[in-house]
Design brief:
Elements lengths: L2 E13 L10 E17 L8 E5 L4 E4 L8 H13 L7 E7 L9 H16 L6 H16 L5 H8 L3 E3 L6 E2 L6 E7 L6 H14 L1 H24 L5 H14 L5 H12 L4 E4 L7 E6 L4 H10 L4 E7 L4
Parallel strand pairs: 3-5
Antiparallel strand pairs: 1-2, 2-5, 2-6, 3-4, 6-7, 8-10, 8-11, 9-10
Helix pairs in contact: 1-2, 1-3, 2-3, 2-4, 3-4, 5-6, 6-7, 8-9
The structure holds (3R)-3-hydroxy-3-methyl-5-(phosphonooxy)pentanoic acid.
């Protein structure tokens, strides 16, 4: 039985995570080495409306209707049917495969949403344009996470490096000279909603202090955009380090991430910071040409459970 499939990459935030939730700009890039892939198969013998989910990497095999109403898969199937004006699906099996680690700052949830919307809309004969995929994936993120900025679904839908400000049209980044990142996973699972909620409580207790930190993070993102567009990537190093210092002030880092950041710098990285929600998950190191493999080895020796070397370029 032929399947209809959709794919989406992982992502990494270069500058401005958390501050982006409070309206400051941020920069993000796709990470194509990890992918979510969703396939929809017709199930001709099943009763209309029965949707079987098979997600082997997270050990999930279930009828969709047995999952909680707030489950993001349920939300996105509903959003897709409403969008297409179709009351219900015929019987189908939806298989989800993803090499993107969950709760690790690489956008696994948004990537599954984007891939699933692409697969389902193709199955229904009306593949959605990226703009609609992005909007619907954002709706699902909002229902699930509360206050997402929209950066994850946007960079993952378009698969290109971009400059993002909440509520504004995204802008593509022109990467004048490609540069290399080493991404390292601390192995600590950290749900986005917990890190974002913790910071919100601190911000509510002392808004002036946190608004000033967010302003500095936003200014760094603007400066970094200029540096990337001018083609002098090593000048990003000190900006990345300054962003990490701000993330520590926000109290979203943790000893394991601090340790990986220090190890990357000691191994010759131009700069290093956590990436994504923090309190675990991944960090990134900006590597000089030829230095990436050594930095990745140093990060694994310092406790990273996996490393990815990725090149940032305009083609994404
Ligand atoms: O879900 P993560 O770990 O990729 O992080 C998302 C980035 C945040 O700025 C922390 C939240 C958001 O909605 O932008």
């Amino acid at each position: 039985m032929p399947a209809f499939s959709g794919r989406a990459p992982g992502k990494s935030i270069l500058f401005g995570e958390h501050a982006v939730v409070y309206g400051r700009p941020a920069l993000a890039v796709p990470v194509n080495q990890v992918q979510a892939r969703v396939s929809v198969f017709a199930d001709p013998l099943g009763p209309a409306g029965r949707i079987l989910i098979d997600a082997p990497e997270i050990g999930l095999q279930s009828e969709l209707s047995a999952l909680p109403e707030t489950n993001p898969l349920r939300l996105l199937v509903t959003a897709c049917l409403v969008e297409m004006g179709i009351p219900r699906l015929p019987a189908v099996k939806i298989r989800i495969n993803s090499s993107i680690p969950v709760a690790a700052g690489l956008g696994s949830g948004a990537a599954v949403s984007v891939a699933a919307l692409r697969a389902l809309s193709s199955f229904l004969g009306h593949p959605l344009a990226d703009e609609r995929v992005n909007d619907l994936a954002f709706q699902v993120e909002k229902a699930y996470h509360g206050t997402p900025s929209g950066i994850d679904n946007t960079v993952i839908t378009y698969g290109r490096p971009l400059f993002f400000e909440r509520g504004q049209p995204y802008e593509l980044l022109r990467v004048a000279r490609p540069f290399t990142l080493v991404i390292a996973d601390s192995g600590i699972s950290s749900p986005t909603s917990a890190a974002v909620g913790g910071l919100r409580a601190r911000w509510q207790a002392d808004p002036a202090r946190y608004e000033a930190i967010f302003d500095q993070a936003g200014a760094l993102a603007r400066l970094a955009r200029q540096v990337i567009e001018d083609g002098i990537p090593q000048q990003l190093g000190p900006l990345i380090d300054q962003n990490q210092a701000l993330l520590c002030e926000m109290d979203v880092s943790c000893p394991e991430l601090d340790n990986l950041v220090a190890a990357a710098r000691a191994a010759g990285a131009w700069g290093a910071k956590l990436s994504g929600a923090g309190k675990g998950g991944n960090m990134i190191a900006l590597a000089p040409p030829e230095g990436a493999v050594e930095i990745a080895e140093a990060l694994r020796a310092a406790g990273a459970v996996r490393t990815i070397i990725t090149k940032v370029e305009t083609a994404g």
